[in-house]
Design a protein that fits this description.
globular; 4 strands; single chain; two-stranded antiparallel sheet
């Protein structure tokens, strides 16, 4: 009876993590509403009210999906990950020929469901399914030494395939896929010789891809030249603000406005909705929303937000450490790493620590696909946390009612 009640518990899982997620989700409404005026007056797309309603819809939908994930055993989701990854790879292949740009601002290709106005980015879901698949595969028969051909086919193959399909239109995400996949292999206790082999193969794949993209016409409409340009812009911005090349100066406009917004915010900020630079900063509601948050809420507001994210990451690590099942522990750490990397990249771009990329701020940036994927990730983490039952108030033991999947085919 108790098990049935827990299953339908409203906030199932780690309560501290739930609180942090709800707090960030609620807070996201204010900077998005403020920054979306850029879309109305500069991009001439919709109204601030319509963008606010759309954002709130995705927040509510994300929370519902996050809770719905708790109704399924995470082990079952792991077993389905190979099939779901295959579907996403198929959709990525389709978008190479039929994909489109949304609002003319996103470099990522979107897939539109036939007969509906619904569009989404398959790359975000492919990335998620790939990491879940890797966690599942690395915990299957973990005590058995796998053949080299197995690791190449079942680990290297899927990672490099997704990388190639995503890299054409979203280089930063493709690079993150390689980095996080490598980290998952390390945490999943893959042999060091295979990890070294993966690094070598990945390096060769990147060099070959860049050569074909920059020096030949075999990969049409790729964004390799944009990546090179952004690196040049970043290097020039570190040396001097006086850039002779007019095209580089124009592209450097984003980061200059972001830095100005951060400086303008000061310690306490200008106040909610009072950003003076949101109209001049491109992608102020998505990729550069952190700069608007600092401008409106100041250093103290940004510090509070970062503290919430820090609590989130700490709770994720604690959940992973308490989970006795290796698959559950590895899955939580891997999903947490995905969120942490995306968070770090977004903030690092805003403060000009790395070249400009198109990574949104988790749970805050305006947009549907990335936000829903983040809620799914957190839903899986909460799912795992709900399976950990601490029954001794004095900390003498822990009830383990988790189905161990190690060594299961």
């Amino acid at each position: 009876m108790q098990e049935t009640e827990n299953k339908f518990e409203l906030l199932k899982g780690d309560k501290v993590l739930w609180t942090v997620i709800l707090a960030i989700s609620f807070f996201s409404v204010f900077p998005v509403y403020s920054a979306s005026s850029n879309l109305e007056y500069i991009v001439n797309n919709g109204t601030t009210t319509s963008h606010l309603m759309k954002h709130m819809f995705f927040v509510v939908l994300g929370l519902v999906i996050m809770r719905a994930v708790g109704f399924f055993k995470y082990e079952h989701i792991g077993k389905l990950s190979a099939i779901l990854l295959g579907i996403m790879v198929f959709l990525l292949g389709i978008t190479l020929f039929t994909g489109q740009k949304i609002d003319g601002a996103s470099a990522s290709r979107w897939f539109t469901i036939p007969g509906t106005p619904i569009s989404f980015q398959p790359s975000a879901f492919a990335y998620l399914m790939l990491i879940i698949y890797l966690c599942r595969y690395l915990t299957k028969r973990i005590k058995r030494e796998r053949l080299a051909i197995e690791n190449i086919f079942y680990i290297f193959g899927p990672v490099l395939l997704v990388f190639v399909l995503v890299a054409k239109d979203n280089g930063s995400t493709a690079l993150m896929i390689l980095m996080v996949s490598l980290a998952v292999m390390m945490m999943g206790q893959l042999s060091k010789k295979y990890i070294a082999g993966f690094i070598g193969i990945s390096g060769i794949a990147i060099v070959i891809y860049l050569f074909l993209a920059l020096k030949t016409d075999l990969i049409p409409n790729n964004r390799a030249h944009t990546w090179v340009s952004r690196i040049e812009i970043f290097m020039n911005s570190k040396k001097s603000t006086d850039v002779e090349d007019e095209s580089l100066k124009a592209k450097n406009y984003q980061i200059m406005q972001a830095k100005a917004a951060i400086v303008h915010g000061g310690i306490t900020g200008m106040g909610p909705g009072k950003s003076a630079l949101k109209q001049m900063l491109p992608q102020s509601a998505s990729d550069f929303i952190f700069a608007i948050i600092v401008e409106e809420y100041g250093f103290l507001g940004a510090l509070f937000l970062i503290s919430l994210y820090l609590i989130m990451i700490i709770r994720i690590v604690m959940i992973a450490s308490k989970m006795p099942a290796f698959f559950g522990s590895l899955l939580v750490l891997s999903l947490g790493l995905m969120i942490f990397v995306q968070l770090s990249v977004n903030i690092a771009v805003a403060v000009n620590l790395i070249p400009v990329t198109g990574q949104p701020l988790p749970l805050i940036s305006y947009g549907g696909t990335s936000m829903l994927v983040t809620y799914i990730q957190l839903g899986l983490i909460l799912n795992v946390s709900s399976r950990i039952q601490v029954y001794d108030e004095e900390g003498m033991g822990r009830k383990q009612n988790i189905e161990e999947i190690n060594d299961i085919a």
